[in-house]
Amino acid sequence: MSAIKTLLGVVCFGHLTSAVLYSSPTEFVPRDYDYIIVGGGTAGSVVASRLTEIPDVSVLVLEAGISHEGIINSQIPLFCTTLTPNTPYDWNYTTTPQAGYNNRSVPYARGRMLGGSSSVNYQVFMRGSADDWNRYAAVSEDDGWNWNNMQQYIARNERVTPPADNHNTTGEFIPSHHGFSNGSAISISLPGRSTPIDDRVLQTLQEQSDEFPFNPDMGGGDVLGIGWMIASIGHGQRSSAATGFLEPALPRDTLDVVVNSHVTKLVQTGTEDGVPSFHCVEFAEAAGAETKRVCASEEIILSAGSIGTPVLLQVSGIGNRDELTSLGIETIVHNPSVGKNLTDHPLLAGVWTTKGNDTLDSMFRDASLLDSYVTEWTDNRTGPLVSPIANHLGWLRLANNASIFETVEDPASGPNSSHWEIIISNFWAVPGIPMPAEGNFVTITTALISPTSRGELQLVSSDPFEPPLINPNFLSTDFDIFALKEAIKAIKRFMSGSAWEDYIDAPYGDFANANTDDEIEAFVRNSAASIYHPLSTAAMSPRGAGWGVVDPDLKVKGVEGLRIVDASVIPYMPNAPTQGPVYLISERGADLIIADLDDSIELC
Ligand SMILES: Cc1cc2nc3c(=O)[nH]c(=O)nc-3n(C[C@H](O)[C@H](O)[C@H](O)COP(=O)(O)OP(=O)(O)OC[C@H]3O[C@@H](n4cnc5c(N)ncnc54)[C@H](O)[C@@H]3O)c2cc1C
Ligand SMILES: *[C@@H]1O[C@H](CO)[C@@H](O)[C@H](O)[C@H]1NC(C)=O
Ligand SMILES: *[C@@H]1O[C@H](CO)[C@@H](O)[C@H](O)[C@H]1NC(C)=O
Ligand SMILES: *[C@@H]1O[C@H](CO)[C@@H](O)[C@H](O)[C@H]1NC(C)=O
Ligand SMILES: *[C@@H]1O[C@H](CO)[C@@H](O)[C@H](O)[C@H]1NC(C)=O
Ligand SMILES: *[C@@H]1O[C@H](CO)[C@@H](O)[C@H](O)[C@H]1NC(C)=O
Ligand SMILES: *[C@@H]1O[C@H](CO)[C@@H](O)[C@H](O)[C@H]1NC(C)=O
Ligand SMILES: *[C@@H]1O[C@H](CO)[C@@H](O)[C@H](O)[C@H]1NC(C)=O
Ligand SMILES: *[C@@H]1O[C@H](CO)[C@@H](O)[C@H](O)[C@H]1NC(C)=O
Ligand SMILES: *[C@@H]1O[C@H](CO)[C@@H](O)[C@H](O)[C@H]1NC(C)=O
C-alpha cells in the first residue's frame, strides 16, 4: 500500500463523530474506513476490537446476521443446545450425502449473529496442544505461530473468572496456564454447578488411570487425559466475541457496525505492485435488495468463517479457474486451493439410560420448574442453567500398538496430542437430535480429533446468497473409521467401572446393539455427525508455496488489500474445539495487521 493512502486513511482521519450499530444497510450511509471487516463473528469481533484500540484507526464491521443483544437463549449457558441447528441464529447448512456416513446428510450449524459461532456454540474452551501450534508454525514456515510465541496471546485473550457457584477451584485447573486479562477478553470459568456424576468420573480416573489418567489442566500444552472443563462462561453467562470484544469497542467513535448486511462481492479497485488490489466491498440486506458499496483505504479483512470466506472469495473471482468459468464467474486470481481441504471433527455420542432421575433431563420436561430456573438465572445468575454442557472432558490416544499403525503413519500433531476426545454430560446432549419424551441419560460424546479425511466446498452458482455444497468427506479413510470405532469401545470400558454400577442402567438406542466390530462400525456410520468445527478452506501455507490461500501473515496470496482472519486459515484440526484456536489466530492476526500499519506510519 502507498504512504499517501496511509496518510489519508490514518493520520488525516477524523470525519466520524460517534460509533453506531446500524440495524440494516438501508440506514447506513457508506463512508471511507481504514479497514472493513467482513463478518462480525468470533474472529471479526476480536480484530475490530484490537484495531480500534489504536487511536484514529477507523473500522467498519459488516455482519450478515442479527445483533446478539437481547437474545436470552444465547446468554443462558445451558440453552446453547437450543440455538442450532435450523433456527433464526443459524445459517441452516447441511452437508452433502456423506459416503462414510452411509450417504446421510448431517446439519452443519454456523452462527448468524454478532459474535458468530461464539454466540451459539457449546462454550467448551481450550486452545489445543503445544504440538498443534508447533505444527502450524512448521507447516506455514513461520515460527510466530509456535506454542511459545502464542503464550502472549493467551494472556491477553482470556480472563479467568470465579465459577457461578463460587466454589474453591484449587486442583481443578493450574492458574499459571491461563490468562487473567484486564482488558477486552473472553471470560472463562470452571463449572458453576456440581453434578451427581462428578465424583464418579474422578473415581473412574483413579480406577482406570492407565487408560484414563487425570489431567489437572489441559490448557498448558499437554492435553492428554481427562480433567475439569473450562468454558467461555463468566459470572453465569455466555461470554462471546460479541460480549467480550465488540461491546467494549462499540463506544469508540472509530467503530461502526452494520448488521443484516450480507457482503456479496469483493471489488477489484485496481492493480498495485503488479497484482490485483481489492479495497471495496458490496453488500445487501438480502437477495434482490439494494446493493451498496463501501471502501477501505488500508485493508479488507475477511472473517466470514470457514464457509462464508471461501464462498465470498470465489464469487468475487478468486478460486479455481475451471470451476469459476463453469459458473460464469470471471477469474481474477486462479487459486485451486480456495474452498478445498475442508476438515472437521466427526462427532458420535454414546448414550446410557440412568437408574434414577438425577439428571438435567427432568428439568427440560417440566415447564414450570424450568421457568423457576430461568427466574433464578435472571435474578442471580445461579442454578442449573449456568451449567456448561459437561463438567469433565478429555483427550485420548489410540494404543501405540494399535493395528492401524502398521499401515498408517500416526496423524496426531505429536506424541502429547490425541486421536479422540471424550465429553461426559449428565443429560441428553446429542447435538441436533431432540431429547426422547421419557428417560434420563448420561451422554458421552466422542469426537475424532486427528482426522485424515479432507473434503471441500463447491459453489453451485455465482449467486452469493446460494449455499454451497459442503462436503467434509467424513470417515473416508481407514484411519478415521478405525479411530472412531476404538473411541466407542473405550467409552464402554470407561462406563464399565464400579463407579457407575448404581447409576447407569444400560446403553440406549442403536448404541445398545453396537458390540461386535461390525456392529460398532454400523453404529458409527449410521449415527456420527459433526461437532461443527470446519477448518482449512482458505489455509495458510508458506510464502511462495504452490498450495494454500494465505501467507503466514494471513494476506491472501496473489492480491493486495485482502487478509483472512478466521477458522478457514487453520491448516490442521487442533486438540481443542475450535473457538480457542480461532481467538488466538485473531489476536496474532490483529497484531500482524497493526505491525504493517506501524511500518507505513514510519513511511509518513
Ligand atoms: C453449534 C456449534 C457448537 C460449537 N461448539 C463449540 C464449543 O463448544 N467450543 C468451541 O471451541 N468451538 C465450538 N464451535 C466452533 C466455534 O464456535 C467456531 O470454530 C468459531 O466460532 C468460528 O469462528 P469464525 O470467526 O471462523 O467464524 P464465525 O464465528 O462463524 O463468524 C463468521 C461470521 O461471519 C458472518 N458472515 C458469513 N458470511 C458473511 C457475509 N457474506 N457477509 C457478512 N457476514 C458474513 C456470519 O454470520 C458470522 O457472524 C461450535 C460451533 C457451532 C456452530
Ligand atoms: C434458518 O431456519 C430458521 C427456521 O426455519 C429460519 O427462521 C431462518 O431464517 C433460517 N436462516 C436462514 C439464513 O435461512
Ligand atoms: C451411497 O451413494 C452412492 C452413490 O449414489 C452409492 O454408490 C452407494 O452404494 C451408496 N451407499 C450406501 C451405503 O447406500
Ligand atoms: C481452597 O482449597 C485449598 C486446598 O484444599 C486450600 O488450600 C485453600 O485455602 C482453599 N481456598 C479458599 C479460598 O478457601
Ligand atoms: C490486572 O490487574 C491486576 C490489578 O491491577 C494486576 O495485578 C494484574 O497483573 C493485571 N493482569 C494483567 C494480565 O494485566
Ligand atoms: C491440501 O493441503 C495439503 C497440505 O496439508 C497440500 O499439500 C495440498 O496441496 C492441499 N490441497 C489443495 C487443493 O490446496
Ligand atoms: C425422581 O425420583 C424420585 C424418587 O426417587 C421421585 O420422588 C421424584 O418424583 C422423581 N422426579 C421426577 C421429575 O420424576
Ligand atoms: C436470588 O438470591 C437471593 C439471595 O440468595 C435469594 O433470596 C433469592 O431467592 C434468589 N432468587 C431466586 C429466583 O432464586
Ligand atoms: C497391545 O499391547 C497390549 C499390552 O500392552 C496387549 O494387551 C494388546 O493385546 C496389544 N494389542 C495389539 C493389537 O497388539
Ligand atoms: C510431552 O509431555 C511430557 C510431560 O508433560 C513432557 O515431559 C514432554 O517433553 C512432552 N513431549 C513433547 C515431545 O512435547
Automatic annotation (TrEMBL):
Lineage top rank: taxon: Eukaryota
PROSITE patterns linked to this entry: GMC_OXRED_1 (PS00623), GMC_OXRED_2 (PS00624)
Key word Signal present: yes
Binding site for FAD: 121-124, 263
Keyword Flavoprotein: yes
InterPro entries hit by this protein: FAD/NAD-bd_sf, GMC_OxRdtase, GMC_OxRdtase_N, GMC_OxRtase_C
Family membership: Belongs to the GMC oxidoreductase family.
Protein name listed in UniProt: Glucose-methanol-choline oxidoreductase N-terminal domain-containing protein
Organism expressing this protein natively: Pleurotus ostreatus
